[in-house]
Every structure is written in C-alpha cells, then in structure tokens.
Inverse folding.
C-alpha cells in the first residue's frame, strides 16, 4: 500500500444484489479515484442459457486498468473491479452451452458483449462494434439489467459463451493471461499486415505490448528490430529475441536504419515524433500506433508518407475469433508472456511499479490470494 492512501475498508457490500443462484465473488477494486485497490465483493449473475461461469485462476494487470481505476480517462463509475486478461476454468454452464464443459480452461479478454448485428460484429471485429462493444469492466451491461460490468481481479465471472475463448492446455495459464489483451493487441496488426518469413518488423517501446510484439513477430518468421530511447533496454530486447536494437535518439543509428523496415508496431503511449520512424520504412511500409497518448502528438509530415506510399494506421485489441487464433498460434509456437505473479495484497505496489515501468513485462494476479467473499449475512 502506498503511504498516504486510505486504509482498505472491510469487505464492502456486494456491488449488485445477488440473484438466486448467482455467486458472491471475492474481488479487489477501487471505490473512488484515489482509494487504491481494496477488497470488495461482487455478485455474479446465475448463468443464463448462453452463459459460462468461470472460476478465475489468474488475471493480468494492464496499464489501462491503472488509468481506469484512477479515473484518468474520466466518466468512471465506482466501485470498479478492473481486469481484462482473465484465465480460469469453467465452473458452471447455462443450459444452451454446448461448446464448453465444466473444467475446461478458458479465457476472457477485453470484450464481454457487443451488438452482434452490425457489420463489424458479423465480420468478427467485435472490438469495432458500431454500437460500441461492452468492455469487461466499467461498461454498461446492456443485456443484464444495465449493471456496470466488473472485471477479473475476482474469484469468478459470468460471460456469454460467444465472448469466451479456449486456452490451450500446453501453455502456462498464468503466463497466458496477458495474451488476452497485450497478446492480441499486437497479434492483430501483425496478422492484418500479413507478416511472414523474411519481413522486417520494427517494435517501438519494450513494455507489456512491445515484448509481446517481439515474440509474436519472431514466431511469424520476421526479423525484429527494436527501437528504444534507453540504452539499458538493449540487453533485454536481445534476450527476448530481437535481431537488432536501434537507439531512436541516436541520429546516426536512425539514418543507418533508413528504408530497412516493412512494418512498425509502435506501442509507446507517451507523445513522440513519428517522422524519424517513417524514414526507416520501405516503400509500402506501414506504422501501426497502438498506444493512445493523453496529450497531442507532434504533427505527422505527409511528405514522408507520400514519398514511400506509407500507411499510418491504428489498431484496437482484436476480435473474439482472432483472439482464439492468437492463442492457438501461441500454443503452436510456445509463446507466452514474461510475467511476475503478484498476490492481492501486492496489487497497489504493482500499480506503482507499472507506472514507473518497473516490470518485466507483465504482472499477473494469482486470484487464489483474494479473501473469501463476504457472506450475505455479513454484508
Ligand atoms: Zn489491456
Ligand atoms: Zn456490433
């Protein structure tokens, strides 16, 4: 616990009233923008015909969790249980579920619902749902009584089967958790660009997203060049499998990288100048920006784009079918995230370390360390 933050209250009342056969889940979440994470109890709905109830084993800590919990993106309702990198086993299924059985190891990422009718949803691009996808936490659950969705820093969750993916048994479940957000967020643009053997992929930034981009691009057969501002990250980049590291503040090194890259995956969320990066791209190259800076970026010079027919694109996580494809790809190639497992009592310290960039490369909560949920009589 960071000094100065309020002491956690005892287990709070359930966030939503428990229905007949729903379960009370132990959780950690925020009760205000400056409360830090405190023990909470969440009432999960009883599985409806299409629902899968999941006993959560692990949940990754994503940088967006920190922004949401601290209200840095505005409009946040509290209490809020974050977490959208969820791995667990099926504990119950609704009467209409035939594709999952009790005991199956499954995952849930950033999306728990969408309109299911628009062109994006019908194309398996639920993340671009025209009516807005339902996020795993902090979103209005349109189909379930307008409750606010509550995420995976919790002992269980109930999700419609359409938004649940299968986790290959060959992979370490804790190290799989970050694949559900960081993994698919980098996999999707690599696939969209059809990266294959012989391509050269540049990765800008070496955090949770960047380290996955390196591993996935290598597994696709690409040569990988990491761009970083900090010399201290060079050994780590090479250790992850990068073929080369370019210090982006070294003008000579950047000039030497002119026209050497096919695709850049830019994971840096702080404002930074993209123009020097465009100059490292070949004709028909592309730069995908994945980080969303809270302040304005330096302007892009269209000349750099025009002269080499370069595409400057963005990309948001991935759809459900693509998330499954990514997990199967990772099983085939033995790719998982590099993680540090934390207990519930260590979450607030982990947040501070994430903000300081002091993690290689993703924290994962072991949900067996959550307190037992409050009984209804005590609530
Ligand atoms: Zn995330
Ligand atoms: Zn839709």
């Amino acid at each position: 616990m960071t000094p100065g933050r309020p002491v956690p209250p005892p287990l709070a009342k359930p966030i939503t009233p428990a229905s007949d056969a729903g379960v009370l889940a132990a959780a950690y979440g925020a009760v205000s923008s400056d409360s830090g994470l405190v023990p909470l109890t969440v009432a999960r709905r009883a599985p409806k015909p299409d629902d899968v109830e999941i006993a959560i084993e692990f949940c990754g800590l994503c940088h967006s969790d920190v922004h949401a919990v601290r209200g840095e993106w505005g409009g946040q309702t509290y209490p809020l249980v974050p977490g959208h990198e969820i791995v667990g086993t099926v504990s119950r299924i609704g009467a209409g579920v035939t594709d999952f059985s009790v005991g199956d190891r499954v995952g849930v990422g950033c999306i728990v619902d969408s309109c299911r009718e628009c062109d994006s949803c019908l194309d398996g691009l639920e993340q671009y749902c025209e009516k807005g996808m339902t996020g795993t936490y902090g979103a209005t659950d349109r189909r379930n009584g307008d409750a606010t969705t509550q995420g995976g820093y919790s002992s269980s969750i109930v999700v419609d089967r359409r938004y649940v993916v299968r986790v290959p048994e060959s992979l370490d479940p804790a190290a799989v958790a970050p694949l559900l957000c960081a993994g698919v967020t980098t996999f999707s643009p690599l696939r969209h660009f059809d990266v294959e053997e012989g391509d050269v992929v540049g990765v800008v930034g070496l955090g949770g997203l960047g380290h996955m981009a390196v591993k996935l691009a290598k597994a696709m057969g690409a040569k990988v060049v990491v761009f970083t501002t900090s010399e201290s990250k060079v050994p780590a980049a090479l250790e992850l499998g990068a073929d080369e590291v370019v210090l982006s503040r070294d003008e000579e090194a950047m000039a030497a990288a002119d026209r050497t890259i096919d695709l850049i995956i830019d994971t840096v969320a702080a404002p930074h100048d993209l123009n020097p990066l465009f100059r490292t791209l070949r004709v028909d190259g592309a730069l995908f920006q994945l980080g969303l800076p809270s302040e304005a970026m330096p302007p892009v010079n269209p000349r750099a784009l025009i002269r080499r027919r370069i595409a400057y694109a963005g990309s948001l996580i991935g759809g459900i079918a693509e998330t499954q494809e990514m997990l199967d790809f990772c099983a085939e190639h033995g790719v998982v995230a590099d993680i540090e497992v934390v207990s519930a009592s260590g979450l607030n310290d982990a947040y501070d370390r994430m903000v300081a960039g002091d993690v290689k490369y993703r924290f994962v909560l072991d949900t067996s360390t959550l307190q037992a949920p409050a009984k209804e009589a005590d609530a």
In short: Residues 1-10 have pLDDT under 50 and may be disordered.
